[in-house]
Amino acid sequence: MQPPPPIDRNELQKLAELARLHVPAERVATVTQHLQRIVAAFDALRSEKEEATVPPVPVAPLRLRPDVAEPPLTTEVVLRNAPRQAAGMFVVPRVVDA
User: 3 in a domain, yes or no?
Assistant: First the structure.
């Protein structure tokens, strides 16, 4: 198996464009080093032999609560811990441009 190619500025730029991320110029070197370490870690995992894996440990079945209908919570109870609220609704930051 060949080792993965090193992550350079061009590769970082391609990845950032695909992920629609902006990497400031002063962070390019740091982000490139982090990505290179991540790629090296995955490459090390790929080289491990399959027979070295540990068989899965049997897990006891989960005990779930009974599925019983209960009355819904009131608006006041639901909004009690809301950081911001208006007109009986949660106020959250905009995540999609209109």
Answer: no
Number of domains, the chain? 1
Q: How far, in Å, CA of 12 to CA of 22, rounded?
A: 10
Could you tell me where the DSSP H helices lie in the chain? Answer: 9-18, 28-47, 75-79
- How large a percentage of the chain has pLDDT more than 90? 49
Backbone angles phi, psi at 90, to 5 degrees: -70, 145
Whether 12 and 32 have beta carbons less than 8 Å apart is answered as yes
d(CA 37, CA 27): 16
Q: Kindly state whether residue 30 falls inside one of the protein's structural domains.
A: yes
